[in-house]
Amino acid sequence: MTLSDVQAVSAATLRRLERATGDLAAACLSAMEDGQPWFARLPADQRAGVLLVTQTGISNFVAWFGEPGETMRLTAEAFRIAPKDLARRLSLRQTVDLVRIATEVMEERLPPLAADEPEYRTLVEAVLRFGREIAFAAATVYANAAETRGAWDARQEALVVDGVIRGETDDALVSRAATIGWDPGAAVRVMVGSPPEDGGEEAAEVLSEMRRHATRLGRQVLVGVQGSRLVLLLTEPRGRAAGDPDRALAPIVADFGPGPVVVGPVAANLAAAHASALAALAGLRAAPGWPDAPRPVDADELLPERAVAGDPTAVRGLVESVVAPVEAAGGELLRTLAAYLEGGGSLEGCARALFVHPNTVRYRLRRVSELTGRSATDPRDAHVLRTALLAGRLAEPGSSP
């Protein structure tokens, strides 16, 4: 808005406006304290910031009358000099309430300074435009602050995800995660897969939908796109027993791109999440070895494929979850399991090879299932068990049957 849009005021009126700016700003501050109880409870530095913005806005408003053809600078200058964190400490609603109060004070005190009726109408109209302009300026400031905050949060989020992948889960990373609202002590799992096929804004919307799904499930999530893989850090709900299927993951998994989605084991907290990330990434590399794997698939369900792909952690996992408990139980269980698997899965053939009754073989296989959670009669479980036997033999030559 330029001065040519309204009738100019006299020099005498302009001087009265200039002299009134200090008292007007003080009157605005007093009205804010009276009209908004929360304002009086603000720290002194925040009230001072509001006064500074008010004084600058009024001064620019008055100066505008003395500069024909100039645009009103309050939108550019009044908020520029505000403390950097003022927009974060006051909500947009609170700021709008303060702008309304300041406008009402100006409507009451400025028009009576006019020399005649035309000037009075000019001031009334100008104050109304002032309120509109300052409200637009406030909205712009908050929009910019939100955009800046969003960009900063996204950067911190990417750094946290990258730190977990790299194993740089020190105090600095935990602190960085806390600044964006993450609970560093919450149990967490790492999920990896391919990012959405559509790039640009559509992919950004899909990632936002992932966050919304997690929020509705009462979980926190950090998302990172690293080239051809999408990495999620997802908090684990309290009270869910280990091994229970997490069906709530389905809507989140649906937002991944095509191909396998692998979920790492539960880590106690963010600082320990690197192990979950390693397992998930190793599982993602090995997943093509099991084309019929579910989606998502736990990284521990891919131990055979990971072991074949050269993952030493998977080799140890197979030995510790299968060979060690069966061997510790004794009673010819390990020898019976090997004979059954290597004999083609024939109960009678295994019994003849071991010179025992078939019921003895049944009992021993049932004990193996109780110890390992895997049944030698199930094709997938049999594959895991046989790979575990091989891993045990290679780990300790001569110690296994």
Automatic annotation (TrEMBL):
Claim: Cell membrane is one of the keywords in the record: no
Stretches assigned to the CdaR GGDEF-like domain: 167-286
Protein name as annotated: DNA-binding transcriptional regulator, PucR family
Family recorded in the similarity comment: Belongs to the CdaR family.
Record's keyword terms, sorted: DNA-binding
Gene Ontology molecular function: DNA binding
InterPro entries attached to this UniProt entry: CdaR-like_regulators (IPR051448), CdaR_GGDEF (IPR041522), PucR_C-HTH_dom (IPR025736), PucR_C-HTH_sf (IPR042070)
PucR C-terminal helix-turn-helix domain residues: 333-391
Coiled coil is among the record's keywords: no
